[in-house]
Amino acid sequence: MLLRQRLLELAGRWRLHEDSRLREAALVAMRAGGDSDFRPLVSALGDSDDAIRRRAEQLLRDAGDAALAALTIASQSGRRRVRLTAIEILADLRPSQEALDLLLERELQQLEACATHKKALRDLQRGGLVRRRLSERIDEGVQAALMTLEARERNSRIGEVARRLACAASQRSRARALEALDALLSRRMARTILGALEDTISTVLPREEAVQAELAGRDGLTRDLLVQALGSEGRAKYREMISSAATAVAAEADPMSLVRRLVGQEDASLLTEVPSILETIVILSDLPLFADLSTVQLEELASVVQWQSLRDGEVLMEQGEEGHCMYMLQAGTLDVLVDGNACAKLQQGEPVGELALFGDDRRTATVVAMGDCQLGMITREDIERLVEEVPGIALRLCRAMSRRISQMNQRRST
Questions:
Q1: Contacts 24+ apart (CB under 8 A), 301-306
Q2: 20: pLDDT confidence band, cut at 50, 70 and 90?
Q3: Is 246's pLDDT higher than 80?
Q4: Which of 140, 145, 151, 136 is nearest to 181 (CA)?
Q5: β partners of residue 328
Q6: What region, left, alpha or beta, does residue 329 occupy, with left being phi > 0 and alpha being psi -120 to 50 degrees?
Q7: Mapping DSSP to helix (H, G, I), strand (E, B) and coil, where does residue 84 land?
Q8: Angle at CA 186, nearest 5°, toward 181 and 189?
Q9: What's the rounded Cα separation, in Å, for the pair 267 and 51?
Q10: How does residue 206 score in pLDDT terms, banded at 50, 70 and 90?
Q11: Helices 50-63, 80-93: inter-axial angle, 10-degree rounding
Q12: pLDDT band at residue 31, thresholds of 50, 70 and 90?
């Protein structure tokens, strides 16, 4: 027991090791310790070290049918390298009929539970991002279930309809895909899948049970968003459960992240002036340019935001200079000057220079701090890398930018 505990302790800290040999050993220890959570191994498929990637791939292949669920989800929503490797492994595994039956049943159960939790939390104040994340997990679960069903039934029509559903850009095309699904699925499967997608699941769960289930669940992003939404009063009510969840992930959390999980936002703000990843997600979600991104995409974007401060009178950008980044104003006021004349003031929550993310345009105005300001910076290089690595983010950004340009043109014409 002591050896197993030490192995799992090592495995839980695998990302923190600078020595790649120790990190590789930690992944092996994870499997030797009998851990049934394959997500760290799947994540390691995208590691920057070749040896780590090869070891993770081999361990997943050795796990066989047990890793099917994690690989199926990664094949749809993982980073590019993770996604491609997961697809290769799935193609080679050739799972048994029994394994597919078990996987499908588990996916349907998880799907129904997720839909039930979303329904129970529909009136949670400040819970918009929690419900968005649950909706995304429902979409991921539906795609995983349909991929599994396609493999079990050897029916390519199921996969075709699943892809149509995933790519539906309008309510009309989505409705047609759901209608086609209804005709293909058994009654029980249609009730679960369509009920989850259309929020018609009949199961009723008290909100407290849904909160407890998600706090104890394995989706860290849902848990963190929920802790944020609960507020100081809710965090006090569920402090023991939040502390247990934080302890479980403490090995992979940096000290400040752990502190933020255990204390209220007001207390955490005394420790640092820089917003946490979670706070940055909330800030990004309020910007029109990023409002359409999924919570996972927002988390990826939040990880590259660089925070900086300006003193009164400091210049953020000069008219005519090349722009390579955008800013979002988190605190303070900015004065906008064109040809030396003040023409606008920017307040908290407003973006600055976002067109620079999509081209080499020069700055059209000089921007100066009026008092102390705090800003988050996103570079064009970061956006280009995320577009390459994170599925779906390019299309959503293009749609949002198209709306932004259209609105700007309308204002100019009036």
A1: 301/378, 301/386, 301/393, 302/277, 302/278, 303/277, 304/378, 304/379, 304/382, 304/385, 304/386, 305/280, 305/376, 305/377, 305/378, 306/376, 306/377, 306/378, 306/379
A2: low
A3: no
A4: 145
A5: 351, 376
A6: beta
A7: helix
A8: 75
A9: 41
A10: very high
A11: 30
A12: low
Which pTM was predicted?
A: 0.80
Residue whose structure tokens are 């000290």:
255
Residue with tokens 């620079």: 356
Nearest of 269, 122, 283, 255 to residue 200 by alpha carbon: 122
DSSP code per residue over 281-345: HHHHHTSTTTTTS-HHHHHHHHTT-EEEEE-TT-EEE-TTSB--EEEEEEEEEEEEEETTEEEEE
State the sign of the Cα–Cα–Cα–Cα dihedral 191, 194, 196, 199.
negative
Average pLDDT over residues 335-345: 92
The answer to whether the Cα torsion of 32, 35, 37, 43 is positive or negative is negative
Residue entry with tokens 């507020």: 231
What six digits make up the tokens of 220?
A: 């860290």
* Measured torsion, CA atoms of residues 350, 352, 358, 363, in degrees rounded to the nearest 10: 160
Joined together, the tokens standing for residue 14 give: 């695998």
Amino acid at 212: Q
Only one residue has tokens 């292949």, namely 61
Using alpha carbons only, what angle is made at residue 100 by residues 95 and 101, rounded to the nearest 5 degrees? Answer: 150
Closest CA to 26 of 50, 56, 71: 56
For residue 382, is pLDDT > 90? yes
